[in-house]
Amino acid sequence: MFVIESWPDPVLADAPRVRASSRPEILVDLARTDLDMVVWTRKVPSDWQQTLQVQQLPPDDLLLDGTLNEILTQLKASAIRARYPAFMIEDVEQTAALAAAFAVSDRMVLQLTSKCQTEQPSGKAKLRVFCCYGAGHIAWKSGTFHGYDPTSSFSPFDLAFVPSWNGNSVRVSCEASPKAVYLVLSVL
Length: 188
Prior knowledge:
Blueprint: E1 4-6, E2 18-21, E3 37-40, H1 46-54, E4 62-67, H2 68-75, H3 78-83, H4 86-103, E5 107-113, E6 117-118, E7 127-134, E8 138-141, E9 151-154, E10 159-163, E11 172-174, E12 180-187
Parallel strand pairs: 2-3
Antiparallel strand pairs: 1-2, 3-10, 4-5, 5-12, 6-11, 7-10, 7-12, 8-9, 8-11
């Protein structure tokens, strides 16, 4: 399995420790308490991007709060399914279930948004998950080096898992885009 790691030198830079891979086995690393973020750079069907290029995405946010079962039930509502592509709703459902299993909790807050935002993590979240569906951009501050704050980003459809082991040191931001929907999921 090919893995990319970011291990900052604490003397030179204050930065999150990140592991990324295209293989789903990378998710096992969520159990490691020495990591700040795990990114699954998954390969998705090409029709996902093609569908999002032609489909009008909703400008307003979807915000759901409840147990995993309550959220999955709400995602099955025809009003929600009419707003988003079927593959996206299915992927969000699977991601929510996966996150609940890794966090050993079924209580969560799920947001789908196209707005620009700098995520301020909830102190009570056990695990946060981010994904960009479409032509958008998600980045995180990858440290401070001599007064400079470089950022790193991940590609559309990648899943970024941020456990709360180390005090939520990862700050994620999303760029507003009419051709993107961002999943921001906090498992409590």
